[in-house]
Specification:
Blueprint (H helix, E strand, L loop, with lengths): L2 H19 L4 H8 L3 H4 L1 H20 L5 H21 L3 H30 L4 H30 L1 H22 L5 H10 L3 H4 L6 H22 L1 H6 L8 H48 L4 H34 L3 H27 L4 H23 L3 H9 L1
Length: 398
Amino acid sequence: MPVVVFVLAVAVFAQGTSEFMVSGLLRQIAADVGVSPGTAGLLTSLFAAGMVLGAPVMAMAAVRSPVRYSVAAFLALFCVAHVVGAVATDFAALLATRVVAAVANAGFLATVLAALPRLVGPAVVGRATSVVVSGVTVACIAGVPAGTLLGQVWGWRSAFWAVAIVSAAALVPVWAMVPRDDARDRDRLDTQGPSMWREWAVVVRRPVRAAVIVGVLVNAATFAGFTYLGTITGGIPEASGGGVPVVLALFGVGSFVGVTLSGRYIDRYRRQIVTVGTVVLVGVWLLAALTAHTLTGVSIMAAVAGAVAFGVGSTLIATIMQTAAPTASRISGALATTAFNIGAVLGPAAAGVVVDHTDHPTTALWCSSAFMLAAVAVVLVGRRRTATPVEEVRVDAH
């Protein structure tokens, strides 16, 4: 695997840390800038919205620029947004920096994912995708706890400075290692390939549409459960003290293991991983709900759920990219990024309604199971209608 893929994963680590660490700093931020905790929560919800909208818009804006310039510009903008956020004294200004950071994050990830086939070759795109996605899982394991700890010791601004420093440190090797596009390749795409707007028509094709819908549902299930994992753990009497960070760390460790293991087999067994994994996830979330009343149960299932959910999730990212790429190579990364961030918004929103109605956070895990049942239905219908997703897209392309 080229070293540049691991460098890109470091940048994704910084971005993933930023996305998730703010939830642990909301009370400090609210007190410092003079808003309520509920209002401060906009820092997380608008970041997610910025990711959803930013991926397609930035992918289209950057399509005519060399990949090196695009990813470096997005990473630099992300870094600057955190520098400005770290010194902001007004909540509106801080909120604006989060939106800018989210858009830059989405553009970076969409561009990187779309460029992977050229960076590593089509034979190992799945494995390279898992390496890049592992940056998010490492952020859950180390980056988020470290950012929260920095915020507790030196104030929330120190966490923003730390993200800016890591981003700046990754910027130089990203610029040095990401190759420039061959101008002839870009000209060929511009003159022979479909327009950017026509590329988006790939979404209506059955294999791509199915992969996107399953991706949304799987990530919705993941974040519905993960969002309330700390609350569930905190309600267990034996989990007083350090139980919550341990369980969250176990989820992060499991997710890293899942992404790493699936990455070894994505390129050969992509379809099998998605089919079997979605079915298994139904049982995983059900078992998590049934065992969530004990610290042992929630600890074990947090690790298992993280492993299976992120293993299937990273496989689905590769699936979306590979099914879309034959006719929409320039927006395949944006399509995958958008799909998974829609899930990240949909899951917690739906789980929040259920939890508020039942007044019991464990119901969020039942909500995850419901999302996965829907995902299984889409997968099984897709299997009956097509031989393989890639084959159908290739037939359509011809």
